[in-house]
Predict the structure.
Amino acid sequence: MMNNSSNRLLKTVTLMGTSLVLTLLITGCGTKEEAAGLHQTGTVAFMLNCDEAAATYFKKAIDANPEYGPSYIMLGDCYLRENKPQEAVDVILKGFQFKIDKGQQRLAHRKLARAYKELGQPEKALEQITIYTRMSVYQEKFDPQKLNETEEFVSELKLPEGHEVVSVSKIMDDTIKARESSRNATKNESSLLDMLNIL
């Protein structure tokens, strides 16, 4: 049986613990592990088309760790589904300020293209879809289906008169050439370094 002083101590520790947890939640000082777990739950909800739940988990991940970039990108996708393109642009651009991998960057550019298209800003949409295309080709993630989808996307853009549109196939071909050039240059540098090491 607990006496009064033990009871007060337990209440004080409980209140301190609760205060600490609330402070962490309010200030957003969490861990990457917490954010990653919340992000994964949000991703599953997103894949199941539970957009409201997904958005809630992405926001919680950001609260747990305000520098967790992937959740900003996925929250932007939720906003796109909710027909809130300006909110999508704002949150995705914020996500670029933090660490996101190349695949997430690539997909973020595609999401930005969709948002700008919905906002009636076709030139910005074209710029973003071009970046997405180049990154997809460079990362070898551009298959025939994505080529068709991207060509259809570009054909639907209402660009100002006189604005020259480069075909997606040309962007793809130019990127393949640049990628091969870059690989050859790296091989040549490596060969030169090997030769210098021999000497």
Remarks:
- Residues 168-198 form the longest helix (31 residues).
- DSSP finds nine helices and no strands in the chain.
- The radius of gyration is 24 Å.
